[in-house]
Design brief:
Layout (H helix, E strand, L loop, with lengths): L8 E6 L3 H9 L5 E7 L3 E3 L4 H5 L9 E3 H4 L6 E5 L2 E5 L4 E4 L3 E3 L2 E4 L3 E3 L16 H20 L3 H7 L1 E5 L3 H17 L13 E5 L11 H13 L2 E4 L2 E7 L2 E6 L2 E6 L2 E4 L3 E3 L2 H9 L9 E2 L5 E2 L2 E6 L4 E2 L12 H19 L14 E4 L5 E5 L2 E4 L1 H14 L3 H17 L16 E2 L23 E2 L1
Parallel strand pairs: 1-2, 1-9, 2-5, 9-21, 11-12, 11-17, 12-13, 19-22
Antiparallel strand pairs: 3-4, 6-7, 7-8, 10-18, 14-15, 15-16, 20-21, 23-24, 24-25, 26-27
Length: about 450
């Protein structure tokens, strides 16, 4: 509806991910006042988080300060904070330190990990944020470092066993990167272990990994992973995870794997914002906690409260919910921004149309699968296409340049330069055994020096 007063229309955007950021950028020249709120002061390019987790890129390579990205938007302010309450009647959102009023509210806070009712978050970290990626990187490299010091062959094998849960794009790309790490990047770095002895196991509950891809591409992706030394277990579910192992079920068969590092890439649930929305607006949530929205992305009872991106359950195109991928959030953010501008002019906007550019996943050097507009590619050509698309969508020029240089360096040297353990965490305790204990698994056939009975970190 057309606004008659002269005060600028106030748009509050909660969440600086793809949806919120693209909405803010689309409103840059609109006659509105925009406030973007996020718990962090930066936007992260989530599709490349797995490269941070495996030491290929540094966090800053795929992150951009929100203030920098929006500094040319003279109608926009950025606030670092967390929304704790929504009052749709007063049209305010409450932060811990103040209230902010709005005329239109866009909620785009994304999702977090879904453990299907199990308390596995500490034992199997997921990969949704920079903090997650840094923690995953710490665990991966601590595992190799601990294996290097471990004298007991069975315990050493536990540290060199990595289990990844979830065979979607995130799990497949993470498994491929770990395979490259163990069989390429690290193979000359250690003296007492062969990193190529590492067991990397990818577990997926469905019949095929990459279930949204055509079956022939899923099979090619599996073959590429196996060439990198990754064992792929499909039709397999996780029953339990402990500090040093995981229990799997395939059909009627149970299998226990002793593994010190379990990484999670299966399932998602909406962020806590969804519950705030449901409580304030009586909006309905789906089984993953996402907010069910109308064809124009607003909640049913309030046409000025929009929910977009992974936080939204949108099933108004062919009756199927849109996938939780970056292009969906980008297009939704732009659409809602156009819708707000159309309303201010007293006009209507055509229904939302999602342009599906397809799927693409990388599986190590020279290997990827691409399904774009009916064009199915795999191998080297698909890998080049994947490289181009990801560099193209990075938001800042310096990020594009740095990532291209890092990838070129890694391509020619097989080296990943961000293999850092930077976050605090208790290092595993190892009891050194005396020299009479069997320990004959040293790399290069070297004899281990006489060990003393001491505890080291």
């Amino acid at each position: 509806m057309k606004v008659e007063n002269s005060a600028p229309h106030k748009v509050v955007i909660v969440g600086g991910g793809f949806g919120g950021l693209y909405a803010a950028q689309k409103l840059a020249k609109a006659p509105v006042q925009v406030t973007l709120i996020d718990k962090r002061n930066f936007h992260v390019f989530q599709p490349l988080l797995y490269q941070v987790a495996t030491g290929g890129l540094s966090p800053a390579d795929i992150s951009s300060p929100l203030r920098s990205l929006l500094k040319d938007n003279k109608n926009t302010e950025v606030l670092m904070g967390e929304v704790t309450k929504i009052d749709p009647e007063r049209q305010t959102v409450k932060l811990r330190y103040r209230e902010i009023s709005y005329d239109s509210l866009i909620l785009a806070t994304g999702v977090t990990h879904q453990y299907f009712g199990k308390d596995w978050s500490e034992k199997a970290p997921g990969l949704k944020t920079i903090e997650d990626a840094i923690e995953m990187r710490r665990r991966v490299f601590i595992a190799f470092e601990t294996a290097e010091k471990e004298l007991n062959p069975e315990k050493r094998k536990e540290w060199l066993t990595f289990v990844l849960v979830g065979g979607g794009s995130a799990g497949v790309e993470l498994a491929g990167a770990l395979g490259e790490l163990a069989h390429g990047t690290l193979k000359e770095d250690f003296r007492h272990i062969k990193t190529s002895d590492a067991r990397i196991i990818l577990v997926h509950s469905s019949e095929h990994i990459l279930p949204t891809y055509p079956p022939e591409l899923s099979k090619k992706a599996k073959a590429s992973l196996e060439r990198l030394g990754v064992t792929v277990k499909t039709g397999t579910r996780v029953i339990d995870i402990t500090d040093n192992g995981i229990t799997l079920k395939t059909g009627d068969n149970l299998e226990q794997i002793q593994a010190r590092t379990v990484l999670w890439a299966a399932g998602m649930k909406a962020s806590a914002m969804a519950n705030l929305v449901a409580e304030a607006t009586e909006a309905e949530l789906d089984k993953s906690g996402r907010v069910k929205v109308t064809p124009n992305f607003h909640v049913p009872k309030y046409d000025n409260i929009f929910v977009i991106g992974d936080l939204a359950y949108y099933d108004h195109i062919k009756g199927k919910p849109l996938p939780g991928v970056a292009p969906v959030a980008m297009q939704q953010g732009q659409y809602v921004a156009r819708l707000i501008q159309s309303r201010l002019k007293g006009k209507t906007l055509e229904p939302f149309r999602y342009i599906d550019w397809g799927n693409l996943s990388v599986i190590g050097k020279h290997a990827a699968v691409v399904d774009v507009k009916g064009i199915k590619l795999s191998g080297f050509l698909a890998w080049l296409f994947w490289l181009f698309i990801h560099v193209f969508y990075l938001l800042e020029f310096d990020n594009k340049l740095i990532v291209m240089v890092q990838w070129a360096w890694s391509y020619f040297t097989n080296n990943k330069g961000a293999r850092l353990i930077t976050t605090p965490g208790e290092q595993p305790m190892i009891q050194y055994e005396d020299s009479n204990t069997a320990y004959n698994g040293l790399a290069n056939g070297k004899q281990d020096p006489v060990a003393q009975t001491v505890t080291v970190q």
